[in-house]
Amino acid sequence: MNTPFAIEVDKLTKRFGDFIAVNAITFKVKKGEIFGFLGANGAGKTTAIKMLIGLSKPTEGMGKIAGFNVDTEPEKIKKNIGYMSQKFSLYDDLTVVENIQFYGGIYGLSRKKIKEKTTEILEELELTEVSKSLVISLPLGWKQRLAFAISMVHDPEIVFLDEPTGGVDPRVRRQFWETIYQVAEKGRTVFVTTHYMDEAEYCDRVSIMVAGKIEALDTPHNLKQQFEATSMDEVFLKLAR
Ligand SMILES: Nc1ncnc2c1ncn2[C@@H]1O[C@H](COP(=O)(O)OP(=O)(O)OP(=O)(O)O)[C@@H](O)[C@H]1O
């Protein structure tokens, strides 16, 4: 990948019949950037993400993820990205280690690599002591961080997080974001959707989608200036109420 951009999207559009769910969105995300993708319910975020990760074909426009075309190379995209949704898919009745091994296997890692990744994830998340515990017994915040780590078990360049911290309090969300920063510091790109405006403040740049269109895109600092707001909450309310 010879471009400074992890994600390049140009007039990407999705129609369902006469309805335009995603209306010619255009943006670029730099490698290593933490990019917040915001919008009210029904704004078109999920439809856009499905196109970006190669699950849904665009009606019009162009998208490149890790250098691969969303329209013609969806399989290559799937191998080069991580994805974690709010309803992340850890197995409650497997242990922490078994979950890591299971997903390592799905991604086709060698036994040696799975062993290395298991040790790395347990140490980084400080989960070594509970490595043999069933996932069902872990607090939600730990499960979310484990699901995040597992979504990157195959070392993707870009990770998509779709409302990754639903249902936990701001302190636990903050811990999750420490992990996001560590990932970005290693040069990986993080594309994250959230309904929590404290999280929008943590992003390098934020886009706000309204009725299928990106109506604003900048750093949280610049957006607050542009909309004469004191918080991202206020920016969001002014745009996407
Ligand atoms: N397969 C589909 N057929 C028809 N309309 C659809 C389809 N999928 C989504 N839509 C419509 O497209 C619009 C955008 O939906 P989308 O799920 O992308 O929004 P969203 O921003 O992700 O919302 P939320 O935050 O609630 O997930 C909605 O009006 C939805 O009803």
TrEMBL record:
Matching Pfam families: ABC_tran (PF00005)
Span of domain ABC transporter: 7-236
Annotated keywords: ATP-binding, Nucleotide-binding
A molecular-function term among this protein's GO annotations: ATP binding
SUPFAM superfamilies (UniProt xref): P-loop containing nucleoside triphosphate hydrolases
Gene3D superfamilies: P-loop containing nucleotide triphosphate hydrolases
SMART domains, alphabetized: AAA (SM00382)
This protein's name: ABC transporter ATP-binding protein
Species: Flavivirga jejuensis
